[in-house]
Known about the structure:
- The chain is an alpha+beta fold and about 260 residues long.
- The chain folds into two domains: about 5-140, Fructose-1,6-Bisphosphatase, Chain A, domain 1, CATH 3.30.540; about 150-255, D-Maltodextrin-Binding Protein, domain 2.
- It has helices at about 5-20, 40-60, 90, 165-175, 185-195, 205-210, 215-220, 245-255; strands at about 30-35, 40, 65, 70, 80-85, 100-105, 110-115, 120-125, 135, 140, 155, 180, 200, 225, 240-245.
- Helix 1 packs antiparallel against helix 2 and helix 5 (about 185-195) runs parallel beside helix 7.
- The chain starts with a helix and ends with a helix.
Amino acid sequence: MSLAADLALAHRLADAAAAAILPHFRAGAKVQEKGDLTPVTVADRAAEAAMRAILLRDRPADGILGEEEGLTRGNARRLWVLDPIDGTRAFIAGRATFGTLIGLLEDGIPVLGLIDQPVARERWVGRLDAQAGATLNGRPVRVRACTGLGLARAATTSPAAFSAAGHAAFQRIGGQVADMLFGGDCHNYGLLAAGHLDLVIEEGLRPWDWAALVPVVKGAGGQISDWRGRPLMLGAAGDVIASGDRRVHEAVLARL
């Protein structure tokens, strides 16, 4: 199966997720608490179910890993990784910074990623093949140059999401950058790919949180790794640094 065909499918998945999500946005969707104490709504579940139905029909041999319904065909070489609403808390609060994440892994390595913000109608796509690159609504995007950490505009979703040790490490970075913004979830990575942010640092992400981000950031010419500089692939711990400029990335790794 060609990556171009997979990309067309990813767009259909995102369209289906958006159709399931938008009727519930700012409509008082009932909130439930999952076993890990994170929130979930009917929109999360409906969006993942819509995407799974398409994949089960059109890619019956591929695996699926979703935040809400878990793993299907986990021994498959190709694995679709779905987060129907990355940023459920933002969604519940009526903030249009949440997004649908669709990633494709081959042998555990991300090769295709899509970030969709259906309210703002912003859709980032990244691919890592012979035609590697990243786009926002079909137009190429590129990270920007940043010569040092002291000039970097950085972001993280929430300091409360860090462990005690992770927060101490994060503070070594936060005090060095030009500006640190809070909130944003997956939207931050799209903004980095488009040259508006220079650094995103987070801890405790799961595969459905980062799988789609890797091709978007790398396709736009950026750097994304764990806190030790290792590539993100299936089995990664989930501590993530994304940078637009290699110099910023290396400075962050040195301080962590």
